[in-house]
Design brief:
Length: about 170
């Protein structure tokens, strides 16, 4: 949402109530919110409310200053900012995980309760890399034996493959 007085992003939503009880909403950027509150501070009845609002704005400015340092980070590969990620919910490239690591880790931990993706493996997959390598090699040997029409060797290789697959289950 844009500020009603300029094109900056709205940071403050102010509801103004006049003497007749009529209310009016104002959507302003930080600078215009301060100016609006200073204008309303000139009127005596609203002075206490205006001072409270000013204190709130100054406090929120301190917190947004720390957030803005993260928002200023830019990915050198896809030119995405962290602010753009927060608005869209999607990263631009794999390099963003490295660039925005400090900001993403608490977010991922909050959402997934962990920061490491474990994933799933198929039930038929071998347990270790060595078994997998052996199975690949045996399957290639089986193809060669069948291509050479050496069916006795093919049967022996097939039995070895079955044994390895049975061990993993």
């Amino acid at each position: 949402m844009k500020c009603e007085r300029c094109s900056k992003t709205v940071t403050h939503h102010i509801t103004d109530i006049d003497k007749n009880g009529q209310w009016q909403e104002h959507h302003l950027c930080h600078d215009h919110a301060q100016a609006f509150l200073e204008e309303s501070a000139d009127e005596k009845p609203k002075k206490d409310v205006a001072e409270l609002a000013k204190a709130f704005i100054s406090q929120s400015a301190k917190t947004t200053a720390s957030e803005s340092s993260a928002d200023k980070k830019i990915c050198p590969v896809c030119s995405m900012t962290f602010q753009e990620f927060r608005n869209s919910g999607r990263l631009g490239c794999p390099n963003d995980y490295v660039i925005f690591r400090e900001e993403l880790m608490p977010l991922l931990e909050n959402i997934h309760e962990d920061t490491r993706h474990c994933g799933k493996t198929p039930h038929r997959a071998p347990r270790d890399a060595q078994t997998q390598t052996s199975l690949i090699q045996l399957r290639n040997d089986l193809k060669r034996a069948v291509a050479m029409e050496d069916y006795e060797l093919a049967a022996k290789v097939r039995d070895k493959i079955k044994d390895l697959e049975a061990k993993k289950s």
